[in-house]
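stuck on this:

***
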Amino acid sequence: MTLTKQAVAEKLVAYLHHEIGLNQLVEWAELAMMDGEFEEADAELIADVVARLGVADTRAFGLAWADCEKLLRQLGYVTRVEIVAA
């Protein structure tokens, strides 16, 4: 299956919404890098973002909110925070 910018963004959003954990995100990214089927028009960009997600579980890289915001921006998305009562 060819990986698109939208699919990568959706996976990152699932992480931000706590639908998947960091380990799941990293595992997904590592498998995606091994598969290497990226949408041709944006292959380099997608590979760069997925590679970054693949090392997010290491102390040297981590994955802060600012990192997520930057990666989503690179994929063509803007982030917006909504606060609601619990």
DSSP finds four helices and no strands in the chain.
